[in-house]
Amino acid sequence: MHNLPVWFEVGSFAVLGLILLADLLLVIKRPHIPSMKESGLWVAFYVGLALIFAAMLFLFTGAEFSGQFVAGWVTEYSLSIDNLFVFIIIMARFSVPRRYQQEVLMVGIIIALVLRGIFIMVGAVVIEQFSAVFYIFGAFLLWTAWKQSRPESEGEDADKENFLIRAVRRVIPMTDSYDAGRLRTTTSSGKKVFTPMLVVFVTIGVTDLLFAVDSIPAIFGLTQSAFIVFTANIFALMGLRQLYFLLGGLMDRLVYLKHALSVILAFIGIKLVLHAMHVNELPFINGGQSISWAPEIPTFVSLAVILGTMAVAIVASIVHSKNKERRLNAG
């Protein structure tokens, strides 16, 4: 595998930073509810941008590096779509005006980028110094896959959320209603207080932190390049805001998405454990020697499993939705 030129890495981050800045300024200057057509065009633009980037990686480094990026990007994009389920619930529970939901999503994306950047830097250093962390990452992903496959308890989530709201309101003066998209407002008595938008940002920030803990070990199971990990995360998060409005009304139809993500996380968890066995340095496992029979799963196999699993989940969800509609119409 060839190393990327420094100018390519620096240039990539500069261009991506400018695109994100332009996206943020657009949201601030023109808050509105994007149409399905507008959202679709933006999503297509960002997906096309990611594919162009993958093609450039192929030209500079060959198929392996490019394949790792595509596998990582698809995985992170899939996990980001799962993020949308939570965002939709947060927006609904806090009754965020739809006109200002773009701003909330953009802040959430920025928080996610910062948190994931920190996790990636720490993860890259830990992996370089302590290869046995692959055992930990693998076991964590297998546990996450099992947990994700179980039905969620809405009651527990609501209790945690209510506790968070009460804790924030207890220490910070806050109004009961929104003031457009403002974080702070002035009461009739002239006192400066926060709006419920603060609680929304805190909730999304905590959610992003939890998703970062899940997603970063997953992509490190596909590539150990910090540059690939970070760019895959940026491309996955870019366009997430538009995807929210494009799929907002269709999210309940993707009934098998969570099952697909469980399969993908379990597969990457197994891949990580096998890799840990292959580069084993723990003295109490095989005398600290590599376990030669542990196979390394190639990148193209990982990509095929990830894409195939998502395709099956989407098709199965569409079939399930149509059958459900047919039964309702027949009844």
Largest sheet, order of strands side by side?
1-2
Q: State the separation between the terminal residues, measured CA to CA.
A: 59 Å
How many domains? The number is: 1
Structural class: mainly alpha
| CA gyration radius, whole angstroms | 22 Å
Q: What is the overall silhouette? A: globular
In quaternary terms, these chains amount to single chain
SS element count, helices: 11
In short:
It comes from Arthrobacter silviterrae. With 331 residues, this protein is mostly helical. It contains 11 helices and 2 strands.
In words, what does this structure look like?
With 331 residues, this protein is mostly helical. It has one domain. Helices cover 73% and strands 2% of the residues. Strands 1-2 form a two-stranded antiparallel ribbon.
